[in-house]
Amino acid sequence: GQQVMQIPQYQHVQEGEDFTTYCNSSTTLSNIQWYKQRPGGHPVFLIQLVKSGEVKKQKRLTFQFGEAKKNSSLHITATQTTDVGTYFCAAPGGGGATNKLIFGTGTLLAVQP
Amino acid sequence: SAVISQKPSRDICQRGTSLTIQCQVDSQVTMMFWYRQQPGQSLTLIATANQGSEATYESGFVIDKFPISRPNLTFSTLTVSNMSPEDSSIYLCSTWTVYGYTFGSGTRLTVV
After folding, report:
1. Is 70 exceeded by the pLDDT of residue A95?
2. Nearest by Cα to A4 from A75, A97, A101, A108
C-alpha cells in the first residue's frame, strides 16, 4: 500500500536555528498536507499543496511540493520554542482531497531555548 | 472550519470491557474518519464512516473489534471492544472540510 516516509524522525535545535523535515512518497500524490501536533494535543492542519513545484509560505514556515509530486518539505526559519511538536505530512490514500488520509511517520521537533 | 467535540478525553478501562467514543461535529459532513495513534507513533486509519452505510475498515482492523456507528451527518461513535492492554492508545475522529482535515481532541485510552 501507499507509504509516506518522513525524515528525520527527531530533530533537536537551538532556538533561532532553522529546521527542515522531508516527506517522500512511493507514489505520485494528488496533493499533500502538513499538520502540527503539539505534545498532548491533536493534529492541526497547516497547509495543503496541490500543484507540482508549488511553494507556500506562512510567516516563518515554507512548504514545498516536489516537481514530480512525490516529495515535499517543510522549512522553519529561526525556530522558536512555540514550534515544538511533531510535524506530519499526509496525503490522500485513494485519490482526491475527500478520501482517507495517509499520514507520514512524523518528525518530532525539540527546540532548546 | 468544522469543530469536533470528542469524548471522553481519557479513560482507564479493565481488560475485557468495551469503551464507546463519541464525536459530534458542529456541521453536517459526509465522511468521518477514525484514527489510532499509539504512543510516539504516527496516525493509523482505522475506518471511514459514511452516514447510512457500513464503515469501511482498513487492513488489520475489523468490525467486531471496532464497531462504528454513523446515525446522522453530525455524529459518529467508535467502540473498542473486548479491550486488551495492546489497545492502549489515543483514538481520534476526523472529518474533511475545505479548510483541511479537522480532528477531535482525542481519547487517551489506557487498558489495565
Report:
1. no
2. A101
Per the CB < 8 Å rule, is A100 touching B33? yes
Q: Are strands B56-57 and B68-72 parallel, antiparallel or unpaired?
A: unpaired
Residue A94 is predicted with a pLDDT of 59
d(CA B49, CA B77): 9
**What's the confidence (pLDDT) of residue B50?**
86
Considering CB atoms only, which of A47, A97, A104 is closest to B96? A97
Chain A residues with CB under 8 Å of a chain B CB are 1, 33, 35, 41-45, 47-48, 88, 90, 93, 97-98, 100-106
Return the SS3 of B67.
coil
Find out whether B57 and B47 touch, Cβ atoms under 8 Å. Answer: yes
User: H or E element: which one contains A67?
Assistant: none
